[in-house]
User: What shape does this take?
Amino acid sequence: MTVIQRKEYRPLTEATAVTYLQKLGYFTNELCESIEIGDGNLNLVFKVTPVGSEKGLIIKQALPYAKVVGESWPLTLNRATIESNATKIYNELTPNYSPKLYEHDEDQAVTVMEDLSHLQILRKGLIEKKSYPFLAEHIGEFLAKSLFFTSDFGTTPAKKKELESLFNNPELCDITENLVFTDPFFDSETNNYEEELNEVIHELWSDEVLQIEVAKLKLDFLSKKEALLHGDLHTGSIFVSADETKIIDPEFAFVGPIGFDLGQIQANLIFQVFSRSDQTEEIVEHILAIEKTFNEKFIELWEQHSVRPFNHLGLIKEKIEGYWVDAIGVFGCELIRRSVGLAHVEDIDSLEHDLKIQVKKKILHFGAYCIKNRLKIRNIKNLLSGLEI
Ligand code: SR1
Ligand code: MG
Assistant: This one.
């Protein structure tokens, strides 16, 4: 029997990130610059560039705890392997929308990827009011392809079960279950909100209908195994320029309800509608166009690539309608959790205090309305047609 010796895990520094790459054969004879650029909640991210050159490589390393809280919140390193496996699948299914994956080291929880630093995080770009004419088309296509080809419409039962086992991601699913579907709906220690919101939040906590509907959505999150999800598709997980869109950070990937990815991205875009005083039409157009593109492409993929020839168009349409009903529920939960829970969004947090409170109150009411009325609302187009900000 061969015993494989695991190498002891060590967090990289800016200096060791360079030697790490050089040991793998990259930039061996070059002087390199290295900077830690991670601004997310969980990982170290280094950009290593040969001096005098624009493009380098990105090294991402998972830390054994959540950076956003500190060492008191231990976190599995396996999420780096989940992320690298998901990126590999996205490289195959949606190469235009995913960074190229070069290396993965399970022991060190390290992934080496394409340098996308010529792009900007979508959330930041939207806050700076930049325009992205192809955004909705790109996101809609990414969603349709990644979800269709990993669903029972686009893959075989055997491959689907392989996906379920490869993306067994209990720790990160648990974080989402708690932070999205549980903690914001009771007086949890993880919550983080302004005292001016006390009254509205207590209203939500004592709203029995809301509590039941959130419990149903949580159960769907735990039990619906529809497709491989990105699992954390907010505007901080997308890099953009005027004509490029790259989806990053799929460490929360798992096989779950399609409406989860659909609802999360749409909610994170609508924060811009709530926080902007002008130019909201452009964002509303993106949100509507994502729904339209997803629906059209999903049906097109089904017509051309279905592994289930006995399916009917009516069934696909019914299923897609169901995904959007689920999405509106998730959308509502995401609105509430980013206002009450642990992890906030810069779109809202960067507002001046009084305005922020006013906006957050609207978001909380709207979130609860979406969760409770999702079956009646049915889709994003209907939802936005009645939206008054
Ligand atoms: C402890 S992690 C907090 C949040 O950051 C991630 O990006 C996910 O959205 C998670 O819920
Ligand atoms: Mg992330």
Q: What stands out?
A: The first helix runs from residue 14 to 23.
